[in-house]
Design a protein that fits this description.
Length: 242
């Protein structure tokens, strides 16, 4: 009787991400994610760290006293939570108004640099490490009715580059498959499946209209940078600056 234990591995991981099809239905897209070498992990981690650096946003902070620290109740999924009474968009407006013209110009230049780092991170992560699973045919139709197959990471980026949620899902897949433990990945997939099958109602203020949200305070510019949460930036909500 042989005492050999046989374990099989692949140089990729199987994964699914959710996309919207031509009819507006949410469907699972099976993809494959490259299994990193040590060098690829180092390159990816360095790029992700650069994309997470938002030095200019440290100037968009809540003052430690006054109305910027006030909270009010809001209802979310049946529970009451306390949220800032002054929305993030107003905090941003106030901090920008307090800057000199030179400071504001420097701030806007740094925001543009952040957008470029985020765009580069997603471009490289998706084009180099993601592709559509063989046996799955994903077809995109242009305005003339012509269709083409989407296979590679570059194809995926060309099709979904304007959808920040899908960019996040693809980059998250690369990050999670190559950095999380098997048990952590199982929990993450289970949580994602649970969240996608149970759409949440937007929070509403108790007895009042909802206040503005952090999304409205995101940097101006390309859609790639707006709300890409794989590389989350600091939010003024509840913070006092650094």
């Amino acid at each position: 009787m042989s005492d050999t234990t046989y374990i099989s591995l692949r140089n990729y991981y199987e994964r699914t991400v959710q996309i919207e099809d031509a009819d507006g239905n949410v469907v699972d897209l099976p993809i494959r994610v490259r299994r990193f070498t040590l060098e690829q992990l180092q390159t990816f981690s360095a790029a992700r760290k650069r994309a997470q650096d938002y030095p200019a946003e440290r100037l968009i902070y809540r003052k430690p006293d006054g109305d910027e620290q006030a909270k009010e109740p809001m209802t979310y999924q049946g529970a009451t939570v306390m949220v800032p009474a002054v929305p993030d968009v107003e905090i941003r407006r106030r901090r920008l108004a307090e800057m000199t013209d030179e400071q504001r110009e420097a701030f806007e230049r740094e925001e543009e640099a952040v957008e470029a780092r985020i765009a580069a991170f997603h471009r490289d992560a998706i084009t180099e490490h993601v592709w559509v699973k063989p046996g799955v045919r994903l077809v995109v139709e242009d305005e003339s009715g012509e269709t083409r197959d989407v296979r590679s990471g570059a194809d995926l980026l060309a099709v979904f580059g304007g959808n920040v949620t899908t960019l996040k899902a693809l980059s998250d897949a690369v990050f999670e498959e190559n950095t999380l433990s098997a048990e952590a990945k199982k929990k993450s997939r289970s949580l994602s499946a649970s969240m996608s099958s149970s759409p949440a109602s937007p929070p509403t203020a108790a007895g009042a209209a909802p206040a503005g949200t952090a999304a409205a305070a995101e940097p101006k510019g390309s859609a790639v940078s707006a709300g890409v949460t794989d590389v989350p930036g600091p939010s003024p909500s509840g913070s006092t600056g650094t």
